[in-house]
Amino acid sequence: MTLSELPPRTPVIVESVEDRQPNDPVARRLRELGFVAGEPVQVVARGPFGGEPLLVQVGYTRFALRRIEAARVRVAAAGEAAA
Q1: How far is the C-alpha of 13 from the C-alpha of 59, rounded, in Å?
Q2: pLDDT in tens, 43-82
Q3: Which residues are CB-contacts of 21 (< 8 A; sequence separation ≥ 6)?
Q4: Beta sheet of 12-17, edge-to-edge order
């Protein structure tokens, strides 16, 4: 599942960030912001009518992400990530 598909207030763990091209600057920036394997993450809120931006919390920090950015972050339930 990706972060953009996640229902609000569902705690999960980051599995990976997808690179769409070599040296992908968006994927690199997401990793720099803390979207790394094993980090807890959840969608806190969505824009009007379920749209953009998504308010996302990774660890203790919140970010506003576009859906296309959130779609690069693969997530798993906490129990699945440990397996």
Answers
A1: 10
A2: 999 998 768 899 999 989 999 999 999 999 999 997 765 4
A3: none
A4: 61-65, 54-58, 40-46, 12-17, 73-76
Residue among 34, 24, 25, 35 at smallest CA distance from 2: 35
What is the pLDDT at residue 82?
47
**Cα radius of gyration (the chain):** 12
Other CB atoms closer than 10 Å to residue 15's CB: what's the count? 16
The alpha carbon of 73 is separated from its chain's Cα centroid by a whole number of angstroms, namely 5
Closest to 8 (Cα-Cα) out of 44, 53, 61: 44
Whether the full predicted model's pTM is greater than 0.85, yes or no, is yes
Say how far apart CA 73 and CA 36 lie, in whole Å. 9
Rounded to an integer, what is the distance from CA 36 to the centroid of its chain?
9
